[in-house]
Write a structure and sequence with these properties.
The protein is α/β, with parallel strands linked by helices. Helices cover about 40% and strands about 10% of the residues. The chain is built from nine helices and six strands; from the N terminus they run H-H-H-E-H-E-H-E-H-E-H-E-H-E-H. It has a six-stranded parallel sheet, sandwiched between helices. Helix 1 (about 15-40) runs antiparallel to helix 7 (about 195-200) and helix 4 (about 105-115) crosses helix 9. It is globular.
């Protein structure tokens, strides 16, 4: 006699299936609203008084790889960074918008060759601020300063420089100096050629960051150096140079915006500025 086996498969209740469909529909609606919001931010009109660098200067950023290669050849033949005797500082490098800390590897190597202890910001790619990520960054700065036994020098490229300024306002006891490189901390927030991309990716207006606005304008309560370039094709030189009262010193360099992360002249200048801490300047 053949015995029949009946297999009963679990069935999803109609109410459970309906709930899953409603959840999926709600998520799709949220995505659509977010996409529409970011699209509107990306295509906002630029205020008439705000101007980024002209198109020819923006296109000159494409020459950055060749300029870095050429400058690197000269530097390898005639190294110009000499470690100052007895000077060693903990330094944290903060990358620019849309970049990874690996882009600042050349600057990190130059600082280490000069005797400094270098760390990156520990958050991978910089796709803009959020309150949670910024709190983690502040915690990392405070923790490293405590571990090193002295405050850090924060070196921030572009958006990373704005982070550095905000951290110095919040935790001046953990920051010895802020060095910004092509950071748009002064004037109109839209005086650059990256603000629409920034708004589309981050989902918030460039003049309303979710971490506060002390990164703009008023100088942090620590020595603050602004490195800027008249050849910058991304950020208006006036924005990255700043006005008296917004930084202690402004130093002009001859490099593209993308070149700040690896140009030997920039590295020499950063090393030189750090030594002013020990000279009391």
């Amino acid at each position: 006699m053949t015995q029949r086996l009946s297999l009963s498969l679990p069935r999803v209740a109609d109410r459970d299936l309906g709930g899953m469909l409603r959840d999926a529909s709600a998520r799709v609606a949220d995505w659509r609203r977010e996409i529409a919001k970011r699209g509107a931010l990306a295509f906002q009109a630029r205020p008439s008084e705000a101007r980024g660098p002209a198109l020819p200067r923006l296109l000159s950023e494409l020459k950055t790889p060749y300029e870095l290669w050429s400058a690197g050849r000269v530097e390898r033949r005639e190294p110009s960074i000499v470690p100052p005797p007895g000077v060693s500082r903990p330094v944290m490098l903060l990358p620019g918008f849309g970049t990874h800390p690996v882009r600042m590897k050349g600057l990190a190597h130059a600082l280490e060759s000069a005797g400094h202890r270098v760390s990156d910001w520990g958050l991978g790619f910089n796709f803009g601020p959020s309150a949670d990520r910024f709190d983690r960054l502040c915690e990392r700065v405070v923790t490293l300063a405590r571990r090193e036994g002295q405050p850090l020098v924060l070196v921030g490229w572009s958006l990373g420089g704005l982070f550095a300024r905000e951290i110095a306002h919040r935790h001046p006891e953990a920051v010895a100096m802020v060095i910004t490189m092509g950071s748009p901390f002064s004037g109109d927030r839209r005086a650059n050629n990256a603000w629409r991309a920034y708004q589309a990716i981050t989902g918030h207006a460039v003049d309303a960051p979710p971490v506060g606005e002390r990164c703009f304008g008023a100088k942090p309560p620590v020595p603050t150096i602004a490195l800027w370039s008249p050849r910058d094709g991304i950020v208006s030189p006036r924005s990255s140079c700043g006005r008296p009262g917004e930084r202690d010193r402004a130093v002009a360099l001859r490099c593209t915006h993308l070149g700040f992360a690896g140009h030997p002249e920039v590295a020499r200048t950063v090393v030189s500025q750090i030594t002013t801490l020990d000279r009391g300047e």
